[in-house]
Amino acid sequence: MRQRLRLGVYSLLLHKLRSCLAILGILIGVTAVIWLVAMGEGVSYQAQEQIKDLGATNVIVRSIKPAQQSSSTGGSFFIEYGLLRADYDRIVANVPALQQAVAIREIRKEVRSTDRTVEARVVGCTPEYFALNHLTMERGRFLADKDSNPPDNVAVLAAHTARNLFSYQDPIGKSIQIDTDFYVVVGQTAERDPTAAIGGSLDSQDYNLDVYIPLQTLRWRIGDMIFTSRSGSREGEIVQLSQITLSLARLDQVDETADIVRILVDKYHPKQDVGIVVPKELLRQAELLRMMFNLLLILIAGISLLVGGIGIMN
Known about the structure:
By secondary structure, this protein is of the alpha+beta class. The chain folds into 2 domains: about 1-50 and about 285-314, no CATH class; about 55-275, no CATH class. The chain is built from 8 helices and 14 strands. It has a 6-stranded mixed β-barrel. It is elongated, with a radius of gyration of 28 Å. The two termini are about 20 Å apart.
């Protein structure tokens, strides 16, 4: 054994340059593989955590704007698409495992205080929306059921929206203006990390730039039709609901619920203006991609070590 060891060391010293290059190749190859594995694991972990934030036991149904299906009336163009309030009722009536269904309507609007104006995402929602999206309060209170019966002009500001409108003053009790209506601020949410876009399924979302008002208030004060003016013409959208999130009690109920919702969507939305996102399926796909990536790295590592070993043997 000692004789073989001495012979190996002698061979390495006999061809110093070739030996150093072979060893360097092995070190670089192994280091690169370790770095790539670590980076891949980090990216995979972040993606999986974002998907988990959506809720593994949730099914998300979203309105999708179809391409070029607008109608024209007197110089105005409008398109009607997406989820209906009737869809919400149908889903609640036909999904037996449903724990809760949370509907929202999202609109981009200018929001004004006494001396400042910001553009924000105005979200018409119910009180359940805050817990569903892990929002906590920094000041004041969440929206409550009493704010919708009858619809009341109250609002909860997200952290950055409150700061942009009122600097570092306490916004509770102050008024904001959306279109021609005024709303009393009853709460301010704490800061929350934005979510990144997940493939082509969901857009990125910054919860710090929102304004939350009761869903019924948005319906009566702002309405379903939103107009914008462009190049001398008016373009409008008619959307009743932007999203419905279905929460289930158990993970094994998700697939059956998603199938029921797909049947309802296919039946009542032939224009394909509604999409379904199942975080459980996204999580499964992310795990599969992670495994494939790791196998590829193992293959690369094996090739690197093989090449380095051949160099030493020669």
